[in-house]
Amino acid sequence: MRPRRSALLLTLLLPLIAGCGYPRSKFEKKMLPSGNEIRLLSTHTFYVESLQASGLEWKYETDLSTKDLPRLKEEVLDVWEGLRPELVREKLTVGVIIAREPPKKWGSFPDYQSHKFVFVKQKRGEWQLQY
Description:
- Helices cover 29% and strands 38% of the residues.
- The chain is an alpha+beta fold.
- The strands form two sheets. The protein has a six-stranded mixed sheet, with helices on one face.
C-alpha cells in the first residue's frame, strides 16, 4: 500500500478504534437530602399543554439497570426528595425524573437505556407518581 493510502486509511479507522471505550457523559454531582449523591446530566423546565402546567425535568445517570423497576423506583424516590423542594419553590406542578444507564457501545454509536418517572401535583396538594 502506498504511504498516502495508509495514512488515509489510518485517519478513517482511528476514530472507530479509539471509540471502543465510549466516554462517560458530562455530569454535575448533586447531593440529595438523604446524603446520597447522583450524577445529574441535565435539567430543564417545560410546559405541558394538556395539563396547562409547567414542570422541571432532571435527567441523571444510574448504575442500576432500567429494567430492574423495583430497585430503580426506590432510587428515584430518593432523587424525588431532592427535586420536590425545587418544584415547590418555583411553583411548578409537574416533575419528571429520567434515570439513564451509562451508555453501552454498539458499533461506533452509544446506546442509552432510560426510564422516565412523572410526578404530578394533584388539586388537593399531594404529589402522585405516574409512570
